[in-house]
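ARCHIVE CARD
Drawer: 12
Card no.: 0347
Subject: one protein chain, sequence and derived structure
Cross-reference: see card 0346
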Amino acid sequence: MAQSQRIVDALKRALKAHGVSYAQVARRLELSESSVKRLFSTGGFSLARLEAVCELVGLDFLELARQADAQRFRVPALTVDQEQEFVGDPALLLVAVCALNRWPFERILDRYRFTEPRLVGLLARLDRMGLIELLPGNRIRLRIARNFAWLPDGPIHRFFVDRLQSEFLTGAFQPERDVHRVAWGMLSAESASALRGRIAELTDAFDELTRGDEVRADSSARGTCLLVALRQWEPSPFRAMRRP
């Protein structure tokens, strides 16, 4: 990714973290909102305009450049061996999930039955794996890319399918808070393709909302699982009634 694009991406993240809209940026730059969106899509900022937008979120240009440069070294995914290490140590996986959701050291220690030395040791392992940077005072800095994801059909995905999926689906769904829907029907190839696009939009929205709550360190946020599945399938009782 070009340095200019990393700077624009870092600026977008800063605007979102501070709740600054494109409309506010447009007023500051004395441009239309559509012109501002075009600037962000093309990266065609002048230095003066970049500095003006930085002022909206209390950043100087050097700090913005530092944040953009740090993005180059962030981890987009783990290796199979690293994911297998998590699967073999649920405590390490738990601490990784907490860290990925921007929980500070004190909150993890307060919620789960870790001693302080044990938690420091687990975080140090995450540091050695390149997932986080463990800073003085047990502060945690993430070292993952914005598009970080577990490996498709990798060890962690299989861990969920084999050991956790049935627990999730057979648990009690609360109507006022949770959603459990099953739909079955006939779809053409074209309709199935369109539906896959809608599902991608849904999972993108989930990721965006979780990142927003992470940035705000929202104390009301709770562990939430979105499970989406779509495949060609005929229930076995139906198949049993097929003609030979």
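Annotation on reverse: The longest strand covers residues 132-135. The two ends are 57 Å apart (CA to CA).
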